[in-house]
Amino acid sequence: MRIVAKLVFFVALIASGGVSGTADPYPQKPVRLIVPFAAGGGTDALARLVAKKLTDKWGHQVVVRTEPAQRE
Asked: How far apart (Å, rounded) are the C-alpha atoms in residues 31 and 63?
């Protein structure tokens, strides 16, 4: 039963023309990587290394923002 349902889905997808190629490329703005700890710590340094690698891989800017949690 599951195989038949998958087959029907894929046939319908192919018949409908698939995914439209006219969509705008994602993302339009720089990607924000939010670190919930204070700047200058180990988490911030690691996030900046990850952001650099993602920028190189995606070809799109990744920005690190540190926003420590507010205590009430």
From this structure: 6
